[in-house]
Design a protein that fits this description.
By secondary structure, the protein is of the alpha+beta class. It has 1 helix and 3 strands, in the order H-E-E-E. Helices cover about 30% and strands about 30% of the residues. The longest helix has 20 residues.
Length: about 70
C-alpha cells in the first residue's frame, strides 16, 4: 500500500476507528497517537470520549511529555 495512491485517507480512518475502540475496550477517556520529532512529541491523532483533555496538533518537549 502506498500513501500516494489515495490509501492515506483509509489509513487515517482506520487509525481513528482503532482509537475509538481502544477507548471503549479499556474504558478510558483519552487515547492518542503521538510522534517523536527530534526533541519534541506531537499528538498526531486523538480521541476524547467525554471530556477533551488533549487536542491533535499539541506539541511539547520530549522531556516534558512524561
Amino acid at each position: 500500500m502506498s500513501l500516494y495512491d489515495g490509501s492515506y485517507q483509509e489509513l487515517r480512518e482506520a487509525a481513528v476507528s482503532v482509537l475509538h475502540r481502544l477507548s471503549d475496550l479499556l474504558n478510558i477517556n483519552t487515547v492518542y497517537i503521538a510522534e517523536k520529532v527530534k526533541d519534541s512529541v506531537k499528538i498526531a491523532h486523538v480521541y476524547n470520549h467525554e471530556r477533551e483533555l488533549v487536542e491533535a496538533g499539541y506539541q511539547t518537549s520530549y522531556e516534558d511529555s512524561y
